[in-house]
Design brief:
The chain has about 150 residues and is of the alpha+beta class. The chain contains three helices and six strands. Strands 1, 2, 3, 4, 5 and 6 form a six-stranded antiparallel β-sheet that branches.
Length: about 150
């Protein structure tokens, strides 16, 4: 059953946000996977993700803060492309300021959490940062990533 906004407590994207240069094309089959979203099942699951009106919304599970929004556009061949990606830049909610790092994190969330293309590999050299960002998914212990 697809995840929907009403399944979790969420906050809107704050006024302090930025557009980042994230791009990706999704086949119709991949778009079907995007529709399923990601529902946290344990405290160690760090994300709540859902698709609404061709916008993928990424929220932190504990706070409900909206961290990323990815707007999709349907193409003539039935595929979907990213038309815009937005990241939260409210200092009270998120301290990352490196657009390139956010593109990498967003790609990991999409490809691992939604498309099930392998476990997160954000290039983190600090295990604690990896755990903080991706939770138990970083250990390979999240069965949702292989469903």
């Amino acid at each position: 059953m697809p995840t929907k906004r009403s399944d979790w407590r969420t906050e809107p994207m704050p006024d302090e946000h930025a557009v980042i240069p994230y791009s990706q094309r999704f086949t119709p089959a991949e778009h079907d996977k995007l529709k399923q979203g990601y529902m946290p099942r344990q405290q160690e699951d760090k994300w709540f993700i859902y698709l609404k009106d061709d916008t993928i919304c990424f929220h932190r599970s504990w706070t409900g803060f909206c961290m990323y929004k990815v707007e999709l556009t349907r193409q003539e061949d039935g595929s979907y492309t990213v038309s815009q990606a937005v990241v939260n830049r409210c200092r009270d909610q998120y301290t990352e300021t490196d657009d390139a790092k956010d593109v990498q994190i967003l790609a990991t969330l999409v490809n691992s959490f939604l498309l099930h293309k392998g476990l997160p590999s954000p290039g983190e050299t600090d295990a604690l940062k990896g755990w903080s960002m991706f939770g138990r998914a970083i250990t390979g212990d999240d069965e949702q990533l292989t469903e």
